[in-house]
């Protein structure tokens, strides 16, 4: 629903550090006074970007990520073993690939 308000004063308060053409969306809070004649929009303070888990290894069957606290977690991907020719051998090769990557990371 789109509404048009006439004879209304609009105030927009922007964060100076965020101004520029790169900004696409403004997040904040809008308030309307009791008489419905004044609208105030105040932009919210910027939030820091959420740190994503860093992917250390990404193979066809397994992936390994490093969490923010430094721990490493291995995930298996959704696959149907019956569709993979010689599944056990390919999984063994994948596990060897993970081990080689971990050894590489330990060496620095």
Task: Give an account of the 3D structure.
The structure is a single chain. The strands form two sheets. Strands 1-3-2 form a three-stranded mixed sheet, with no helix packed on it. Strands 4-5-6 form a three-stranded antiparallel sheet. A hairpin with a 3-residue loop joins strand 4 and strand 5 (62-66). It is α+β, with helices and mostly antiparallel strands and 108 residues long. The chain is elongated and about 75 Å long. It contains one helix and six strands. The protein is 19% helix and 29% strand.
Which key terms come to mind for this protein?
three-stranded antiparallel beta sheet, elongated
Total beta-strand segments: 6
Could you spell the SSE succession in H and E letters?
A: EEEEEEH
> Which regions are unreliable across 5 or more consecutive residues at pLDDT < 50?
none
Task: Note the total helix count.
Answer: 1
Strand content: 25-35%
**Fraction of residues in helix:** 10-25%
The CA-CA distance between the termini, in Å, is: 57 Å
Computed over alpha carbons, the radius of gyration is 26 Å
Largest sheet, in brief, is: 3 strands, mixed
Spatial strand arrangement across the major sheet: 1-3-2
Shape: elongated
In round numbers, the mean pLDDT is: 81
Structural class: alpha+beta
How are the secondary structure elements laid out?
Blueprint: E1 9-13, E2 28-32, E3 38-43, E4 54-58, E5 62-66, E6 72-76, H1 87-107
Parallel strand pairs: 1-3
Antiparallel strand pairs: 2-3, 4-5, 5-6
């Amino acid at each position: 629903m789109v509404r048009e308000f006439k004879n209304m004063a609009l105030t927009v308060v922007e964060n100076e550090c965020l101004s520029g053409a790169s900004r696409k969306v403004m997040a904040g809070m809008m308030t309307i006074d009791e008489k419905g004649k004044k609208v105030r929009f105040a932009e919210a303070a910027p939030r820091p970007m959420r740190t994503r888990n860093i992917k250390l290894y990404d193979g066809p069957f397994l992936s390994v990520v490093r969490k923010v606290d430094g721990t490493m977690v291995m995930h298996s991907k959704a696959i149907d073993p019956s569709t993979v020719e010689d599944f056990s051998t390919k999984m063994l090769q994948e596990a060897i690939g993970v081990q080689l990557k971990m050894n590489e990371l330990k060496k620095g």
